[in-house]
User: What shape does this take?
Amino acid sequence: MSGHSKWHNIAAKKGKTDAARGAIFTKIGRELAVAAKSNPNPDTNSKLADVIAKAKAANMPNDNIKRSIARAAGELSGKDYKELTYEGYGVAGSAVIIKTLTDNVNRTSGDISSTMSKCGGQMGKPGCVSYQFDNKGLIVIAKTVALDEDTMMEYCLEAEAEDYVVGEDAYEVYTTPEKFSEVRKFFEDKGVTFLEAEIKMIPQNYVTLPEDKLATFRKMIEKLEELDDVQDVYHNVDLPEEDDED
Assistant: This one.
């Protein structure tokens, strides 16, 4: 099990998360509420349990998590949120996938299309770039004295993880989407704390953009992530470490 880690610097990522804490909590809160709408019990609702793990990895306080789940029976009861995925291109043909939760499809698609076009990108048809990505469960765990590489290998084999990558200061554990909940629970039962835990689109290959194109692309990603209906943005651009997005 080996590979190239894209989860470079824990301190930099945590600092960036702190700066955008409010926006991140708002998006995860909506995701929690939607997941809990049909069943607010994470013991019997694996999708909700997965989102709770994502929230905890983002350092979302337990009170916020509880309030978000409670919203499912309140303000969301009369709304029909849809999970929609959009695909398109950034500058120089770079590939972008945008995951959304929306109660107004026209608003969401219009906002995304406008944002991309202002930054030299464009929306595409379903499937236009998703073939360049793999849908994987990803669990990121900090390297510690107690959790050395031998122990991590043993855990990954026992949990039947698909793959794992040893980075500078963190491990990346990969699973199939179907096995994600099971593997996540295995590590939780071991008392392991996650830096990241979610199912996401992983690019099969990364592209490098020239500096001028890189600045434009980075601006587009930032603007897309600021949209209220956008939950996650995935792309295949190899961004510099200090500005790594996904």
Notes: The two ends are 21 Å apart (CA to CA). The CA atoms of residues 89 and 95 lie 5 Å apart. The chain has a mean pLDDT of 89.
